[in-house]
Amino acid sequence: MHESRPPSLIRDFLNFLPLGESIPIDQVESEEEIMKRFRTGAMSHGALSTEAHEVVAIAMNRIGGKSNSGEGGENSERFKVETNGDSKNSAIKQVASGRFGVTPEYLSSAEQIEIKMAQGAKPGEGGQIPGPKVTEEIASQRNSIPGVGLISPPPHHDIYSIEDLAQLIYDLKHANVSAKVGVKLVSEVGVGTVAAGVAKGYADYIQISGCEGGTGASPLGSIKHAGIPWEMGLSETHQVLVMNDLRGRVTLTVDGGFQRGFDVVVAAILGAEEFGFGTSVLVALGCVMARQCHLNTCPVGIASQKPELRKKFPGIPEQAVNYLFSIAHDIRKILAQIGVRSLDDIIGRTEFIKQKTDADFNKTKNIDLSRIIADPDPSNSKPRKRILERNNRNEDPIDFELINYFRKSIDELIPNEIESKYYNC
Fold first, then answer.
1. Separation of alpha carbons 187 and 209, rounded Å
2. What long-range pairs does 18-22 form, CB within 8 A, spacing at least 24?
3. Within its chain, how far is the Cα of 58 from the centroid?
4. Distances (CA, A) of 378 to 233, 234, 348, 383, 384
């Protein structure tokens, strides 16, 4: 479908440029290894039905990828492994401006914690779940009242500077010391500067979200006209991080309209290490794109809280697994054609891509993508992908010192006290 349509996306104007001979596909890393780089977009339990939200989590856990809880919390019963070995626990737990569903138990169940600053489909507009979708179950998870619409404001009201964001990153790393903490940004002009601040604020990963994906509940004007393509935001972010010698500190992830292996390989060449699928996974599970997500009338029970519609949900984990496996296989074929053995070998390597020069349309013949596919470090002296396991401060937190001192008191319930001097300078 993509190959036969007129060019409409930035990546439609790009071609791969092999630097050597093709290799047999059996020399390329396996589908199973590739799928470990996959994640889902942040889709909340509330926006999605219980059944759809759980199936997405099960599918991603089966392939070794990561599902994203979205904003709104998760039932703690899902944190336990099922008797058949499946897990309904979302590996990524999101913290957004409304803080709905964020509890110590929620945070402690995460492999990664994501601070959502905005959404690619509607940057700067915040979020809302309509009252009819706030059932007793959803209200309980979000510590609210059934039937009352819940609004996530456009800004975080405790974040008005990059220092404030760094403080939240610090706090979340203490809430769950084993979880990696990341920040979700949207593709926009200047996102590279913000991303540099996020890396300096000790985030472990940065998510760039493009305009092509996003929630089906966004206003139509936002879906059609807000945001910019992920190729622009990803390229700017990667280049700024490389030029400032920050790229090795963070993992760079991207989402926004990913549907095929071609999209993933282009994103890897532009600097991404992990890749998000949202709407396409829901389509694999039976979504018919009715665009009724906000009305609570989804005809296949994916985006509805009505019991009679939820019964119509046709999805099973195998459908999502099979779809993502086919994407991974497509990636393997492309890697074999350009002569590389793994996605790691092409991350940030823009020499593997070139702009098409055979455009047949007057509107597109003057497009220049040279800045998007530019090499930020021709000398190849700086990291182009993550090299640090964790982007942590070079200090031992006071919390750990105090906990170790009071360990016996905590275990044996013995009173104790300590007097120390600490300086904030």
1. 6
2. 18/337, 18/338, 18/339, 18/352, 19/338, 19/339, 19/351, 19/352, 20/339, 21/339, 22/336, 22/337, 22/338, 22/339
3. 17
4. 21, 19, 12, 12, 11
**What are the residues facing 92 on neighbouring strands?**
68, 112
Q: Please state the φ and ψ torsions of residue 383, each to the nearest 5 degrees.
A: -60, 140
N-terminal to C-terminal alpha carbon distance within the chain? 60
Angle of CA points 277, 123, 89, to nearest 5°: 40
pTM above 0.90, yes or no: yes
* pLDDT one-digit tens code per residue, 242-261: 999 999 999 999 999 899 99
Cα–Cα distance for residue pair 412/207, rounded to 1 Å: 44
Q: How many other CB atoms are found less than 10 A from the CB of residue 103?
A: 15
pLDDT digits (tens, 9 = 90+) for 305-349: 999 999 999 999 999 999 999 999 999 999 999 999 999 999 999
The secondary element (H helix, E strand) that includes residue 254 is strand 251-255
Angstrom distance (rounded) from CA 171 to CA 177 = 10
The residue ranges of DSSP E strands in 4-60, in sequence order, are 14-16, 38-42
Domains of the chain: 10-396 (3.20.20.70)
Q: At residue 359, does pLDDT exceed 70?
A: no
Q: What is the pLDDT of residue 215?
A: 64
Distance CA 176, CA 246 (A): 24
Residues 6+ positions from 255 with CB-CB distance below 8 Å = 39, 41, 120, 207, 208, 209, 210, 213, 230, 275, 276, 277, 278
In angstroms, the CA 314 to CA 285 distance is 7
Strands 205-209 and 251-255: parallel
